[in-house]
Amino acid sequence: MAMKIKDIAKVAGVSTATVSNVINGNHNKVSEETIKRVMQIVEENDYNPSATARSLARKESKIIGVVMPNLAPDEPFSISPYYTQILAMLEKYVRTKGYYLMVRSVGKCAEIVPVFSTWNVDGMIILGAFRDEVPELEDKLKKVPTVYIDTYASDLNIANIGIDDYKGGYLAARYLMGKGHREIAFVGPNVDSPGVIKQRFKGFSDALAEKNIQITADNIFESLTMFEQGVEAGRKVAFSKKKFTAVVSMSDILAFGVMEGLKLSGLKVPDDISVIGFDNLPECRYSNPQLTTVSQNLEKKAHDAGDALFRMIESKEMISVNEIVDVEIVERQSVREVYN
Amino acid sequence: MAMKIKDIAKVAGVSTATVSNVINGNHNKVSEETIKRVMQIVEENDYNPSATARSLARKESKIIGVVMPNLAPDEPFSISPYYTQILAMLEKYVRTKGYYLMVRSVGKCAEIVPVFSTWNVDGMIILGAFRDEVPELEDKLKKVPTVYIDTYASDLNIANIGIDDYKGGYLAARYLMGKGHREIAFVGPNVDSPGVIKQRFKGFSDALAEKNIQITADNIFESLTMFEQGVEAGRKVAFSKKKFTAVVSMSDILAFGVMEGLKLSGLKVPDDISVIGFDNLPECRYSNPQLTTVSQNLEKKAHDAGDALFRMIESKEMISVNEIVDVEIVERQSVREVYN
DNA sequence: ATAAATAAGTTAACCGTTAAACCTAATAAG
DNA sequence: CTTATTAGGTTTAACGGTTAACTTATTTAT
User: Fold this and answer.
1) Better pLDDT: A140 or A232
2) Which has the least CB within 10 A, A162, B58, B166, B276?
3) E strands along A239-327, which residues?
4) Nucleotide nearest A58 (Cα, C1')
5) B242-265: buried (b, 16+ CB within 10 Å) or exposed (e) per residue?
6) What pTM was estimated for this model as a whole?
7) Is residue B257 very low, low, confident or very high in pLDDT (cuts 50, 70, 90)?
8) Nucleotides in chain C with any atom closer than 7 Å to protein CB
């Protein structure tokens, strides 16, 4: 059985309070002598204070709760690399601060947030929540520093790190038009429900409208954002009545699927049709053709989210930020110029 | 401030013990009447018992600690998709059991294991530990159910879920030889240090030896397992004195890099040179050519690890398993037949 | 020489639950 | 009719720390 603070105190011939003071660095309360002695006993016995007990007494935990969306609840690979990538970066960030990550992926956040609270988490990061669930969440998590990533809710006075989704859609369209494309398909989740996709679509269609290109329902291929669904969407694009010269896809993984679907339908990318993705995952460099995409700068998002969160934790007050990380086109090989 | 058990007890006019009994389902100790009343008050006040206090009292936590190797400590994307993939699957597994995951990636496991212990984790999963660190670990984690994934230590009486690495290397070589290849490069971490790579290399070279093909130092390209290092290795393979017709790579991500490096050196895959990977990540389907690889069946590994872990947790006894998940070649497009 | 301040502790309450031991009235058994 | 048993609780001591308040001996200031 592992040693407890009482045991250390007994061996050292001091009270538990003294031991507590030395291991917590309240060294003004205790003599050099005693510090040395206690420390040595701690080392010798490989004593680690119970994080649970400490957390109970201090009402803090050095743990950060992360809730991730579970994109397709029953699939084995249902968590997008986009989110696992961010998770890895967040883990790195909190690690440098001496914190731990508690992770849960789930359909609805509202169930999990209260559980994190019961663990006295010092902060929470919520990935990809919908705007509409935010009010309920805010109600439940009262007083726990929280930062959202990718929640489109600028009106809500929360701390959110997102991108300029409108600009992302806009840039993609401009880029493609700059390469001479005019018949462009849009592949992604429903463009009407409020959220990031709606914004992106708005930017996309506004850019086209500026050049007098009208978007109709035929241009839109509604699809979830994983590979298989992309394959399906790619096929539909290939066999559509409209002859598209380019497609913009709402995630890179989806774009990989689209490229595969196009290929299976006999079209070569980018020779016959161009594809642009969204996210700029490391995977973009593995694909062939390498995927041209709208970059989200994941690293900056994760880092800024960490910064915002710890600013709140350290200052002990809720701050509301609405940070917009810049987006840009990363040119690779999946888009070619077209001449009319 | 959130309600505590005392508050609920006061409102219900019962003792905290009774409240505790109803929320924990010890219903034989309390009347139907009281159960109803307490439950209602619990609901009305949205009461959630403190996980921290409960954990302290019960000496258990419903949390599973996961330690992941940090492949290249200072790189932003330093955690391989191989591990994040497994992490996502493990999260799913434990979620169905009502457990939470606490995650830490770190260079050396020995520091993190004791910390998990102080959280009263009910179990731990350790990914990719080296055999040599196991004894120290076992010493530190005394009594916490633990399962290792990918630790080659069949002699050590621990619970490990791995694959038949020897067979993996053997199969890769056989497969390539079956396609007519005789000059095969091996790209991966050091083949001498004890561990999975050594085993794979043994299988690889044994298979070749069976056909009287000798492996020399020229065939081996030592490399870490991420993309960038693969690019470098691919270049070296391309410009080596020996003319290789195929390369086996110790991870898929590495193989993507190798393909890129070969391409940058003017070689086409698979026309000029074939490449076979190891892992069978979802990404293999995104690459072009799609990567032929040795499949690890990640899903089964994660699932079996979960099974083993919860078998230990539920039976409250340490069991030692040394499970070998089967490997197989998954044929895609990165290897072609060659005629001598 | 005396009061005030400081150094180096100790004591004990508290953090929020659990669970073993104890209690009491009502029912069942003999 | 007396004794066991049971149903339905309550009391209280853990669980393993932290920390505010208190103590005591020694310096420092006046």
Assistant:
1) A232
2) B58
3) 246-249, 274-279, 292-295, 322-325
4) D18
5) eebbbbbbbbbbbbbbbbbbbbeb
6) 0.94
7) very high
8) 7-12, 14-21
